[in-house]
Amino acid sequence: MNIRILGAHRCESETSRCASLLIDDTLALDAGGLTSTLPISTQLGLKAILLTHHHYDHVRDVPMLAINFFLHGASIVVYSSSGVRDLIKDHLLNGILYPQFQEIPASKPTVRFETFSPSQAEMIEGYRVLAIPVNHVDTTFGYQVSSTNGQMIFYAADTGPGLSDCWKQMSAQTVIMEVTVPNRHEEFAVSTGHLTPNLLSQELRRLREIRGGLPRIIITHLDASLENEIREEIEAVAEAINSPIIVAHEGMHFHL
Ligand SMILES: [Zn+2]
Ligand SMILES: [Zn+2]
């Protein structure tokens, strides 16, 4: 699998994009930074978008991608919980804010919604995808994506502390997870369902206990204005747990 990080932040600026990553230019995980980072030809090659939850920084490019698909007579499948699907239908693709691409053109609608239930697995474009609930807003799924040759990646989405149940279901060799704010904002992080470097450290120690080792850890969803502070604190965590932690950036890619 070829993984490309399109957006590694929780906010947009001239150098930062919101949450999005690509698998083999076929599956997109979250749609926070899809259209501003990809040529139209690559956008049109996408087969499916997997949405982790309804927050705007993760769904904002669904309408922008849909208009490009619509104009080319193409269609895309959007996977999410039923709650996220309903919110997008009611608030984004509602015929007021933007067209109802799930209904037009009538012969072959541009957007087709499919839903996951918690801990459900589906085959999507040859990948096995497992939706694992995490602690953020109701309902937030992390997605474990497995290729036919056994490579696996887990994208944990936005998540606050308390990932033990998730770690028990997850078996990927590479885990992409969030750290949003530095340690001094722990109260904010806990109340909004996010991680600081210290909270990350606790979750990784739990993961190591449960799994007997740590997978490759890649961090995204940083607040761009606090990035230097967050990076320094993540370095300290990596030293303390004696295991490398990679901080993602826009355009980063790697193979599994
Ligand atoms: Zn977010
Ligand atoms: Zn969120």
Task: Write a compact overview of the structure shown.
By secondary structure, the chain is of the alpha/beta class. It is 29% helix and 24% strand.
What's the helical proportion of residues? 25-40%
Task: Give the beta-strand count.
Answer: 14
Strand content: 15-25%
Question: What can be said about the biggest beta sheet?
Answer: 7 strands, mixed
Radius of gyration of CA atoms, rounded to a whole number: 18 Å
Main structural class: alpha/beta
Q: How many angstroms separate the termini?
A: 5 Å
Label the overall shape.
Answer: globular
Helical stretch tally:
8
Q: Whole-number average pLDDT?
A: 98
Strand order of the largest sheet: 6-5-4-3-2-1-14
